[in-house]
Amino acid sequence: MIQKKSKKGAVTALIACLVLLAAVILLENISLFLPAGSVPNVLKPTSQLFAVLKKGAVYSLAAVSMNLLNGFTGLFSLGQAGFMLLGAYTYAILSVPVADRAAVYYLYGGSAVNFSFQDMFGSLFGAEGLGGAVSLGLGVAISMVLAGCVAAAFAYLIGLPVLRLKSDYLAIATLGFAEIIKAVFQWQALGPVTNGANMIKSFPTFSSFNITRADGTVLLRLSTFFPFLVSTICIAIICLLINSTYGRAFKAIREDETAAEAMGINLAKHKMLSFCTSAFFAGVSGAMFAMFVTNAQAKVYTTTMTYEILLIVVIGGIGSVSGSVMATFLYVACSEWWLRFLDNETFLGGIQVPFLRAGFRMVVFSVVIMIVVLFFRRGLMGSRELPDLLKKRSRKEAAGS
Amino acid sequence: MEFAISVLISGISVGGQYALIAIGYTMVYGILRLINFAHGDVFMVAGLLGIYLSASLPLYLALPLVLLLTVALGFLIERAAYKPLRAAPRMSVMISAIGVSYLIQNTATYITGGQPMTYPTIPFLSDTVKIAGTSTKWVTILTPVLVLILVLALTQLIHHTKVGMAMRAVSKDFETAQLMGIRINTVISVTFIIGSALAAVGSMLYFTNFQAITPTAGALPGLRAFVAAVVGGIGSIPGAVVGAFIIGICENIIKSTQFTVFSDAGTFALLILILVLKPTGLFGEKVTDKV
Amino acid sequence: MNSILRVENVTMQFGGVVAVDNLNLEVNEGEIVALIGPNGAGKTTAFNVITGVYQPTNGRVSFLGDTIVENHPQGKLKKLYKGEHTGDYTQVLAPTPDKITKLGMARTFQNIRLWKDQTVFDNVLIAMHCRTHTNFLAASFRLNHVEEQAQRERVAQLLDTVDLYDVKDEPAASLPYGKQRRLEIARALATQPKLLLLDEPAAGMNPQETQELTAFISRVRGDFKLTVFLIEHHMDLVMDISDRIYVLDFGKLIAQGTPEEIQNNNRVIDAYLGVAEDA
Questions:
Q1: Which whole-number Å values give the CA distances from B19 to A50, B28, B194, C8, in the listed order?
Q2: Tell me, which fold does domain C112-193 have in CATH?
Q3: Which of A108, B33, B55, B106 pairs with A269 at a CA distance of 20 to 30 A?
Q4: How many contacts (CB atoms, under 8 Å) link B and C?
Q5: pTM over 0.90
């Protein structure tokens, strides 16, 4: 009985994910099929919509991975940006084509790592056509998994001393580690690997996944689809984890550590598992963030970035995966797209609208956030998930009819 | 030798300025168990106010006004952003603090246009003085003295006045203090007022040394001061002061070597080391979970 | 009869306070043994030492014949410690509570500590986590569904035995007090213990509820072939079901024996009622 219900749920969830991914492909490519003159601005590939969707996909994975730790395990960690940095750099270092390395690392006379997965597979399958696509896909996939692994490995090392700390102390210690990592990656002495304080670029980005003809015209756009695909897979795995016996143990630790320990749950082991898993997915999202901004640079991964992700998690509801995802897209859309007009000096009937000038968007945005924080304390979803809401509604309807 | 002395002196000076900020963090934490992320930004606003007010007013009027307005800001933040969340989980209040910090920074960017502003030179404070063979500004010498005076005054206040006693009671046990008829909200407001006033004084000293103010200029000193408070054992005022001096000196020692890029990283490494050895900081009280 | 739990010369100091002073006791397989004493006598502290929450200052605890906890005073503590048997123990053995639970000892708490937001069903299911054989990845990718299904069926059975099946989908916090107590016992049973430690299971219960609980404990003991070691203030319950009783006062063992012996022991009466000044 219980088994059946969860199977049905899993199938529904799978279908929902596939529908979402198909919708993304359709949305992204609709401009290719419509006659050139009739494409609304918002659907053009340069539209802010796609930037929002891409960034949303990247951030939603970061937010969900943070929620796994802060929301589901109750470990208050602020190291997210650090783990994203590790992922971004690992990905970048492993993916810059060998031919471009000298140009990227010109300050250091070339890179110490003279190898990239894409080149490796390229020499196996050929660099052009289908072989090129396969080597791109495999190269990126392996680099991303390794990005996650490096972040998780660091998390393990960091976790050994700090996971024994409680709440705020843990938060400040993880935040400290993120700052240390940031400094290390900017260190000149590591230049041949990290390119010092300069950015690493020229690696495959989201737009590398667009399928083009030989003359450069686009056949099929997949640049938004790709981050959605990766995030969907990763978030699905996190959901599976949360609903597994280990995920339940995490929740037990969140609600009462002493009781959890007394019921045979090894605190050190489970906290470490949660910490490393969270770091793994943060690393993957960091790799995607590097693809999104088309470069990797340590100074971007600040505590502000961590706070931003934490805000998203709280706005979505601590302990709700679907809440985090929805909040991410709302947050990103608000800050990058919907409030854009506030930054432009506008004239209405010859009179300049007061206040509207560069910077006003962020002021309004932070006021909106404050309102949400103060008046919607439990966030969008509380600790509920989307299916719970639907279920409740259908139950209500059933009761009403 | 001279070099070492100058490093040490500037370390003590910066440490004193961090101490003034750190006290604000530690007092608020002691009472509300809240990391007041907006405190560093209040410090930055005090700096900006100093610039704007001194542009139109003489310094002897501008500086007291800066103090007054910063206090008002601290009070207002507490009333608007933290008080409504008194019964909410701790995480919500902290998020609110992050939100306030965000709001202040963005508003400052909007008003200043994001350009760095230059802090006015306060006569006497920025005059140079020679000590032990190295020349430095008066502010460097004055800071530790001023910090000690202020901290002593604060300790007197906490140990010998009625409101100080109430503060100690509230920090020991929030609920019981409330049941005993202590007006919690007054106590909390006083805490924020003291914290903001000290941050304002800190900003005058700090920005006399580091004159460029950007909207994010409060973030780093704020973070370092917070680290200092944690190192000293958050909730403890002497701890915050000692921690701040340690952090200030360490930072300046690292800055004087070739590892400048690690000045903040070194601070954090020290923090983590201390937390691992002594999980509640140097002077923090040990909390035991009753089973 | 086989000894299942043996506490030897256990002393527990907090700073200068000696909460448990040179405690010796033994619980045999199949027994129900009670630990009684006035408030603050050190009963819960003794439980916390046995279950690994606190590390004792001195002494040894053995479970099923193996030493599980041992410590001896050293360094700074040496000056403070004034107990006997200081030289008897040389090992330092301080496993975390989860390891002791895995050996087959489960407990309940004086101030109920359920996972409040989790459902009744999940509370019991989570407690089975320590008996799963699956690893992290296998569990995430549902390769353990056979084991999981078996666990879910056992939870259902267990909830049925403790009469909580009808509320299985309620959050634990919403249950009435008596049911929360029973759920805590069910949760402890889910870890498959051989020895069950109950810390004031009848606290706050009225006489009728206490009576029901007494019957419940006896029944559970039979069903699960348990040994029970309990702390309790309700003397009806204690006298009713205990095979033997230990009495603790100011951290020291002042009496032990069968319920009849304890009822007639003058020191126990003094400890509970106080000694008359002029006596």
A1: 47, 14, 13, 51
A2: Rossmann fold (3.40.50)
A3: B33
A4: 4
A5: yes
